[in-house]
Amino acid sequence: MTETSLQGVRSLLFAPGDDARKLRSALASAADGVIADLEDAVAPDRKDAARGIVRTEFAAAGTHMRRMVRINGLDTDWGREDLALTRTLDLDAIVVPKATADSISAVGADGVPVIALVETAVGLRQAYEIGLHPRVSALMLGGADLGAELRWKPRSDGLELLFARSSLVVDSAAAGILPPFDVVHLAPRAIDELIDESTFARSIGFGGKACIHPCQAEPVNTAFSPSQSEIDWARAVVAAFDDASARGSGTAVVDGRLVDAPVVRHARSMLSHPGSTNQLPRRSPAAH
């Protein structure tokens, strides 16, 4: 896995690359990272203008916000021009749409980390292979394109997404990359639904979620951070296990439940998550 500033990132906010106002709003939001979208959000006759706007707004932004670009498909001239642009910007990652094992190779072996957007049936079947690419740090599930291809009928409980979600979690872990990012929630003002969806996604192994409106960032950050009760549990587990280890035992009991090494690893991971203190490390600008 590539060394990456994406560790602990919970919310990634998409903003259209050709709209300077919305891009500035995203960069001032509570999101952990902003993705300037040069693909679906930008009309064909606005692609060149969008690249210029992204360059200007990213250069003017403060240094704290993680910044990324979703490029067009690398089988297009737009995508190749986007990729050339990314090499001149101070980015934390690029987002590659409709990723497959073949298409991801076009980004090359050197450069900033890649978030591979899995939004086709082929991409879903090849997610593990995609995750093995040396630049891929995380996968992101794209629900709209995948749902259209597979003829999903949207459900209020999101059950149509369960197989795809579970597959990405397993493939990410097997490839040794970060936990994946969940699909966007398409109703920006339905915050209760967003929280429920985010809480479920975290419960099955997602590390964060894509957003489409600044108001979604804080609820997503909260949902993907350890709660106070989880932090208290993790501290109790670590303390009990350390005490047991000092007495020569490899197990302990916390709240009537057996605690062994795998449980302790999970507890330590929870305590080390930046969200446990609500202090995600600031990005360190660097020339790429």
Automatic annotation (TrEMBL):
Chain ranges of the HpcH/HpaI aldolase/citrate lyase domain: 10-214
Per its UniProt record, the required cofactor names are: Mg(2+)
Classification via InterPro entries: Aldolase/citrate-lyase_domain, Citrate_lyase_beta/mcl1/mcl2, Pyrv/PenolPyrv_kinase-like_dom, Pyrv_kinase-like_dom_sf
Keywords for this entry?
Lyase, Magnesium, Metal-binding
- Key word Metal-binding present: yes
Database matches in Gene3D superfamilies: Phosphoenolpyruvate-binding domains (3.20.20.60)
Tell me the leader sequence span: none
Q: Where does Mg(2+) bind?
A: 119, 145
Sites where the protein binds substrate: 70, 119
Q: Which GO terms describe its biological process?
A: oxaloacetate metabolic process
Output the Gene Ontology terms for molecular function: lyase activity; magnesium ion binding
Keyword match Magnesium: yes
Protein name, UniProt field: Citrate lyase subunit beta / citryl-CoA lyase
